[in-house]
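Sample A.
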Amino acid sequence: MAWGPAPQKMDNLTHTLFAATLIRTSLGRAGRGTTAALILASNAPDIDILAAAGGGITYLAWHRGPTHGPIGIVGLGLVTAGLVWTGRRVLDRKRTDTPVADASFGTLAVVSMTSVLLHILMDLPTSYGTRLLSPFDWHWFAADWLPIVDIYLLMALAAGLVFGRGSEAARRRNAAIALVLMMANYGVRAAAHQQALAEAPRLFGPLLPRRCDAATPGGSVIDRWPRDTPSSPRDLSGGRCLVEFAAMPTFVSPFRWRVIAQLSNVYEIHDIDLLSQRFRASATAPEVTSPTTLRYPNIWTPAVVRASATRLGLVFLGFSRFPAARSLVDLNGIATVWWSDMRFVGGAIALDQPAGRGNLFTAVVRIGADGQILQAQLGR
């Protein structure tokens, strides 16, 4: 069985470099043990990888769940502090000197909880999102500012650690510079994201349909899903209208975005470069229909509705922000249902790629003529 979306998350290299940067601030000077606490706690929420032992569906059900919520902040913080405290005591038995004062357990707990919280807050601005309130609320939240791996964030953090290692003052100064560059990167991406959303109606041209009566309101900085509203595909399949716009970041540039228009029975997708000459030249035009707009059907047939009631359907639709559904019934009456998450199409995952063939953000369900589930799996 394919793994599903496990590889797509704010990479642990970024979290580790960020922790190493924090070590050069006052957090890292709170006593012996804080360095280890910062490094361990910065990666602790991703311990949910252990759920993969139960299979791809189980992993997806628990991914960025309680370890990325309030219980995770407190629990993982205390566990990390306990591990560092215990490990330090074991090592002290073999040492005759302790040149640096030990951090108290309370200090280690505060440092660790802070580091876990910052891990979660770094996941929030990505297009993948996180479940901030789980297990009390299993909704996903995302701001869509950054891709899963941001090369500019990585470069800023790495440069701050590589340069100026000669003195303590230089290390502190470079850590401060790296954090300022990090915040500037977030700011630029946030502003570009808002501009991409503002240009969305013009990109798709005059044929874009009216907004649905229960369309998702725009302007929210943080998106939340799944939505238990009448704007679900199954309720709107009988009429064509606009549900919402979204802008997904790309890996190459903070000014290149993939704009998604969710309609009642189709997704339309367009790439935009906010700095391109072609885009600036057309900025004065009231409407611009893009020749490169891609369309992906989203048709909720009875077979799709049946598949949505399976465990895979419930888990995948709970995770997927823009699930596009399609189905096919063969001569024997066996129905095959595919869902693909539109956030992760294009680029390495081509839109015209058959669903279920190498696409880790696809769910496949096969239903017999008698309504029995024959197969349910993620990806291939």
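Sample B, a different protein:
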Amino acid sequence: MSAKSKIQWTQRPGTVGRTWNPCRGCSLVSEGCTNCYAMYAAHRMENNQTLKGAYSGLTRMTEHGPVWTGGIRLVHEALEQPYHWKEPSTVFVNSMSDLFHEGVPFHFISRVLEVITKTPQHTYLVLTKRAQRMREALGPRGTGFYAAEGPVPCPQPNLWLGVSVENAQAAEMRVGWLQRSPAAVRFLSVEPLLEAVDLDAHLLEDINWVIVGGESGPRSRPCNVEWIRSVVAQAQAASIPIFVKQLGAKVEVVYRSPEDNAWDHPVFPPKDRKGGDPDEWPEDLRIRE
């Protein structure tokens, strides 16, 4: 299933924002998965008759809400979709799964990557929580991967690779594997930001872009404005472009001094349910590079 995307970081000048899902289904691997938007969306779509069972069996209901079952569905017919897009697109790959999930065979990953190499007019952003398997699938820098027609060198200029960083543990587990993976652009999606994260110099080496945001959706967990400020400051100190996506549905504030007894912007809490309207943010956080 492919769709036009409203995700803010797919809205690049001169391109159409899209999602592309050659896989469906996932499983929980860390704290960032707890309130996964795709998990809730898959559950809602399970009984949608027009989708003909596309998401049936991929989630199960628990007392805390829907949860991935761990089942993976390969959507072979979706592999042809990028060839038919007439306009250059910025494509979020597998918004409803994880391309490097252990249930996705390496040969299928190679087919997805082959499509990417054959459609250089599009830019593909692949985001994963399974950074080690990403590195295994793509090989070390410069070695490439194997497609039907033989070896394909990496990095491909239209392939951007990213890892999710929701807390300090995730940063330590994933960023190193990303740094060792071949990509034209390497990015961090520091969302949903669940605690203060220290991205020290070695974690920002060879990183080209940082996205940061609080959690939104059902059962959102709090995100402190100062945690976001810290990520912004760390990226700026390393001269890395920073994109503040949203403050999240539960914005917390720590006042900086006894005299500073109000947020530094008149709209608090934000009216936007995701904290996604930059006009409601402190001015220093209105950054989307």
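Observation for Sample B: The radius of gyration is 19 Å.
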